[in-house]
């Protein structure tokens, strides 16, 4: 790459509306510019877009720490907008007790208890949507499927009351914006943060939570002494922070993949067990969580560049998931590839603790749709919902062609 080209990519704002709405061209230039690039729009900021280097940094928690925040803001210099997450924004050893508590609560064994119910809810949800529709239903798949299904099953599983759940998506939207720079997206959310955050924080109290959900299990861990009673509400807050918007846009991704790859949908209908690999490949392909930052704990040499201690490094998860140095034909959604090793759920000790929950939601919804919908057709091009962290859809107008009609 020429010096001019390198200077040009380094000067791009990765959080501009242009890049957020269509990130792949910028990410390709970023990868070509080197293993690490100083992003000159912001002070002390570096970016990593290649799979090998981003992966290596994500597993190197000793040198690329999270406790100074995983957004642009450095908690060692600036006060965070909310008390830091005990999981996401913590390093070992503090990180480890909350993680050890949460992992089995959201693990495959515990989820077996929810599997039948979530499949039944998905069937009922899709049946209700399709009822009386005739042979073809035209629908916006974002509110009708990608948002409605997780908003039905996940808050119930956490054990929060029905009342007020409309705060969950705007809270998550602001939280994911707030990892980025203080741009217009953050300013637009700011006037309403206090009411959303106030409601979310109130749902983390023991008295508010049902006695059989993920929330109660976190409080029970505090009673056993595995975490403190002061930590319990913040661990519940992590579920309500990380568990809603992420799955909405993960489901949005796999629905987009199925609408644009009718052959893949035919195969999934014939064998709904393919919904697991379809979801995983959609997470790689779309990378709903595009970026997270780390902070250099010491001076770190990467290639010819030294990232100085205290600098922020932006990990481009979506870019790593599209790196042709690692993936064949990375921009293609391909049901036949092995997407494992993608960094869409992160990598290393912070790798998504809720990934089994997300996969179960996707499997339940896709299986219900596969039994009832012969073809998913794009009715109009989707529109993007811009967010500093999430690659998200606002709308996805689709036509669902009913099976057997
Ligand atoms: C948390 C948290 C919040 C947002 C995202 C996330 C993707 C975690 O509060 O722990 O992980």
Ligands in the structure? Answer: 3-methoxybenzoic acid
How is the biggest beta sheet arranged? 5 strands, mixed
Mean of all residue-level pLDDT scores: 98
- Contiguous helical run count: 16
H/E topology pattern: HHHEEHEHHEHHHHHHHHEEEEHHEEEE
| CATH fold naming | Cytochrome p450
Question: Would you count the extended β strands for me?
Answer: 12
CATH architecture: Orthogonal Bundle
Indicate how many domains the architecture comprises: 1
Query: What general form does the structure show?
Result: globular
Evaluate the radius of gyration.
21 Å
Helix content: 40-55%
Oligomer: single chain
In percent terms, what proportion of residues is strand?
5-15%
CATH class: Mainly Alpha
Which homologous superfamily in CATH is the superfamily? Answer: Cytochrome P450
Look at the helices and sheets and give the structural class: alpha+beta
Q: Stretches where pLDDT falls below 50 for ≥5 residues?
A: none
Task: Give a description of the structure.
By secondary structure, the chain is α+β, with helices and mostly antiparallel strands. The chain contains 16 helices and twelve strands. It has one domain: Orthogonal Bundle (Cytochrome p450). A hairpin with a 2-residue loop joins β6 and β7 (305-307). α1 (3-10) packs across α3 and α10 (214-224) packs antiparallel against α11. The termini are far apart. The model has no long low-confidence stretch (mean pLDDT 98). The site of 3-methoxybenzoic acid (OVM) has 9 residues, from α11. Belongs to the cytochrome P450 family. Keywords: Heme, Iron, Metal-binding, Monooxygenase, Oxidoreductase.
């Amino acid at each position: 790459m020429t010096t001019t080209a390198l200077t040009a990519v380094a000067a791009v704002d990765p959080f501009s509306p242009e890049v957020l709405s269509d990130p792949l061209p910028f990410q390709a230039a970023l990868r070509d510019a080197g293993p690490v690039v100083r992003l000159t729009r912001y002070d002390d900021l570096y970016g990593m877009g290649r799979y090998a280097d981003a992966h290596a940094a994500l597993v190197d928690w000793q040198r690329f720490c999270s406790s100074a925040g995983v957004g642009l803001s450095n908690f060692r210099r600036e006060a965070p907008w909310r008390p830091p997450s005990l999981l996401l924004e913590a390093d070992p050893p503090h990180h480890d007790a909350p993680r050890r508590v949460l992992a089995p609560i959201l693990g495959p064994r515990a989820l077996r208890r929810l599997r039948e119910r979530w499949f039944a809810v998905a069937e009922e949800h899709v049946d209700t949507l399709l009822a009386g529709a005739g042979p073809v239903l035209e629908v916006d798949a974002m509110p009708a499927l990608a948002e409605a299904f997780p908003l039905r099953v996940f808050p119930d599983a956490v054990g929060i009351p029905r009342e007020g759940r409309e705060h969950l998506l705007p809270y998550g939207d602001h939280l994911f914006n707030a990892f980025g720079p203080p741009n217009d997206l953050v300013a637009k959310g700011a006037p309403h943060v206090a009411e959303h955050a106030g409601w979310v924080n109130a749902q983390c109290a023991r008295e508010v939570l049902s006695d059989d959900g993920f929330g109660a299990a976190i409080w029970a861990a505090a009673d056993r002494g595995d975490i403190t009673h002061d930590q319990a509400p913040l661990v519940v807050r992590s579920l309500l922070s990380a568990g809603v918007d992420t799955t909405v846009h993960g489901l949005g991704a796999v629905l987009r993949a199925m609408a644009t790859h009718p052959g893949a949908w035919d195969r999934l209908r014939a064998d709904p067990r393919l919904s697991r690999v379809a979801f995983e490949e959609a997470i790689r392909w779309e990378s709903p969580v595009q970026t997270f930052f780390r902070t250099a704990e010491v001076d770190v040499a990467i290639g010819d560049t030294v990232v100085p201690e205290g600098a922020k490094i932006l990990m481009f998860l979506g870019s790593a998931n599209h790196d042709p140095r690692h993936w064949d034909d990375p921009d293609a959604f391909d049901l036949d590839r092995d997407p494992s090793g993608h960094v869409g759920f992160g990598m290393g000790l912070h790798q998504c603790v809720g990934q089994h929950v997300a996969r179960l939601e996707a499997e339940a919804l896709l299986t219900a749709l596969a039994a009832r919908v012969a073809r998913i057709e794009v009715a109009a091009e989707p529109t993007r919902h811009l967010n500093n962290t999430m690659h998200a859809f606002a709308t996805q107008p689709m036509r669902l062609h009913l099976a057997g009609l």
